[in-house]
Design goal:
Distance between the termini: 48 Å
Number of helices: 11
Oligomer: single chain
Helix content: 25-40%
Largest sheet: 8 strands, parallel, barrel
Strand order of the largest sheet: 11-12-15-18-19-20-21-22
Radius of gyration: 24 Å
Structural class: alpha/beta
Number of strands: 24
Length: about 550
């Protein structure tokens, strides 16, 4: 209607593009969440499509109903994407050209909803409770008014908050949070009180997204760094070299572990012991407040072995005191590849192998030969290379996706439909793998961390990675993390996995698989892109669990 305001209720797997009419919520779609989970929906709106409408005043939004206090509202904001999809991409993209796309969820303040002339905007609603007494079916009314108080629209939405408490995620969900990125963006002194406060907020946001494990920067992680350069130092362990050997300070590490406990992070990953893409050099470790190792010190340097002989047993003693060893992993080097890569990886691993006995060592790789050679005991395999590993069924197997998993498999790029993000929970459960890893929770840099970027202006790491690969969260004001749509949908995928765990416990593995994959055709390279599939399967999970409880 050209002369009137338009409003459309949408589900959480819709991306409301400014110039494409949004998909209305299906009559069969059921907004539901388990205890502690967010039930999410959207309201898209567009001002009159007439040239005489020139009022830029924001609308006012309010929610009515007995459960209105359980609702949080965000504006879905557009972000720029200079690199959205590679040429010749598969059909599973929603957007593929440079442009402005919905992604950032900025909290609504003072009930104000911004107006975009001639285009759609959207509000995002999260409804949640951890109190079983507040569970039930809730009728909500979203009321939109103009700046002068004129009521423009009322939208009725029914949400069920199910009083079922799900088990914790029984696989590892690992996400690499970059402490230097937080310090650099906000201009904070590393490990100042303000920095620690910001770290805790972003750690909690990672847990909300479904992360169970974070990379602990015991030394500055030697990751995504240009050869010969160094990132801002974020080393948790203080190292002093004396005439008698090495002394270590673990206060900052203990504080890190306490933040993990406080925010619900159950897994600890020790930063990689050697540099990325071949393990040829040592991390830029600070000793006596100066860089003592780095790109100029080979992996097999005897001085590094001496440091590790002292440091690793001391570190492991602290970890045994503070943590469950079954939830600690070490990394040798990230993404070794090629014949030379295997040789240098094995040489580096030999430097520390005896010092890691009894501990789990996990590394990301793409080449099957690194596993069959015995170089990597617990592989983290790219989802587009995982089928040979699944056929062999290693004792433990993780998977990952990142920039190169841009065809056929699930991923969370801004240009992909949200269903392609949500698919991962079903895939991880059906495949029976032990963990998932993603490198970019908050990487606000260009390729190889050569320079900083403003993530509100650059979502493609300076044009290196498809928009959304490098981060899932934005740096909000005052050190507050602002989620993305992708953050929220990834969380839904992990809740799907937890619900399937509960169905399996109540009714058996076959029944759980029947909910999501009755014909047993689900594979990592066949994500289901039909959004309604996820709402229907969630309904079946909830019915199965309600029957078991009743």
């Amino acid at each position: 209607m050209a002369g009137a305001w338009e409003f459309v209720v949408c589900d959480a797997l819709v991306k409301v593009h400014p110039v494409r009419d949004p998909r209305p919520v299906s009559a069969e779609t059921w907004f539901q969440a388990f205890l502690g989970e967010r039930a999410s929906f959207q309201l898209a709106y567009r001002p009159p499509l007439v040239p005489t409408f020139r009022d830029p005043s924001p609308l006012q939004v309010r929610v009515e109903g007995a459960a209105a206090d359980l609702v949080a509202v965000s504006c879905v904001e557009l972000v720029p994407g200079s690199f959205v999809a590679l040429p010749g991409h598969d059909d599973g993209y929603e957007f593929d050209e440079p442009g402005l796309y919905p992604d950032l969820l900025r909290p609504v303040t003072n009930g104000e909803a911004p107006v975009r002339f001639g285009s759609w905007a959207a509000l995002w609603f999260d409804v949640t409770t951890s109190d079983p007494a507040r569970a039930g079916v809730h009728d909500l009314t979203v009321v939109m008014t103009s700046s002068d108080g004129t009521e423009l629209h009322r939208a009725s939405v029914t949400v069920e908050l199910t009083a079922i408490e799900l088990p914790p995620l029984d696989i590892v969900s690992s996400h690499w949070m970059h402490l230097d990125s937080l310090a650099d963006h906000y201009g904070l002194e590393v490990f100042s009180e303000e920095h620690w406060n910001v770290v805790e907020r972003f750690m909690a946001s990672a847990a909300e997204m479904g992360a169970t494990s974070l990379l602990a920067p015991v030394w500055t992680p030697p990751l995504d760094t240009a050869i010969g350069s160094y990132r801002t130092v974020v080393q948790l362990i203080e190292i002093t070299k004396t005439a008698d050997g090495y002394e270590f300070g673990f206060d900052r590490l203990r504080r890190w572990l306490e933040l993990c406990r406080r925010t619900g992070i159950t897994g600890v990953e020790v930063a990689h012991l050697f540099t990325q893409w071949g393990a040829k050099a040592t991390p830029g470790i600070i000793v006596n407040q100066k860089r003592a190792f780095g790109w100029d010190v080979p992996a097999t340097d005897p001085q590094y072995r001496k440091l590790m002989e002292a440091l690793l047993p001391a570190l492991q003693a602290v970890l045994d005191e503070e943590w469950d060893r079954d939830h600690v992993v070490f990394h040798v080097s990230d993404e070794p590849s090629g014949e030379d890569g295997l040789a240098t990886y094995l040489a580096a691993k030999a430097v520390v192998a005896d010092l890691l006995k009894g501990w789990t060592v996990v590394d990301a790789l793409s080449e099957h030969s690194f596993y069959t050679s015995g170089a990597v005991a617990v592989p983290v395999v790219a989802t587009n290379h995982v089928e040979p590993f699944l056929a062999e069924r290693p004792e433990r197997l993780w998977v990952y996706y990142c920039v190169s998993q841009d065809r056929d498999v699930a991923n969370r790029f801004v240009g992909m439909p949200s269903a392609r993000n949500r698919a991962l929970g079903h895939q991880l459960f059906a495949s029976g793998v032990d963990g998932f890893l993603h490198w970019g929770f908050n990487f606000w840099y260009t390729w190889h961390a050569i320079r900083r970027v403003n993530p509100f202006e650059d979502t493609s790491a300076g044009g290196a990675f498809p928009s959304g690969d490098a981060f899932a969260v934005y740096p909000g004001t005052d050190g507050t993390p602002w989620p993305s749509i992708r953050h929220r949908v990834f969380a839904q995928a992990m809740w799907d996995h937890r619900a399937l765990q509960a169905v399996r416990a109540a009714h058996g593995g076959t029944a759980a698989l029947d909910v999501i994959d009755p014909d047993r055709s689900l594979r990592f390279d066949r994500p289901v892109l039909d959004a309604q599939h996820y709402y229907e399967s969630r309904r079946r999970m909830t019915v199965a669990l309600s029957n078991a409880a009743g």
